Protein: LAME_0G04478g1_1
Amino acid sequence: MKSGKPYGLPFEASKRNVFSNIAINSAFGLGIYFLYKDYRKKDPKASKEQESKPAPHEIQDPITQTPVGIQRPLSLPNASYREISFATVGFGFMMQLANMAHVSLGRNSVLYKMGVASVILYPPVCYYVYSSRK
Structure:
């Protein structure tokens, strides 16, 4: 252990690991931000400020003067900030598990490959779950 690296650990510091740690911490930070937005949305002082702005689904059509619903592809109109926070933190947790398997067991381990598969499959599964409920 003269090199400062613990015995039997296949991990070597790299730029890839730095970028994966930045992505993981960004996901956790976004989750906290969305949770704060949910808190501010329920705060009575913040809700008075929001009342003056028209919601996107309440914008009127300039010709007919009727409210127009804006529907974007791949959007979840009924998802709250709390649910988005849950999904974002869950995504960060999946990335953290894959990163820990990479650090501890190396890139050829089955746990690392399953972690990468879970990171890839988490967003579509999460979208499917949230879009199927109405």
Notes: The mean pLDDT is 79. The radius of gyration is 21 Å.
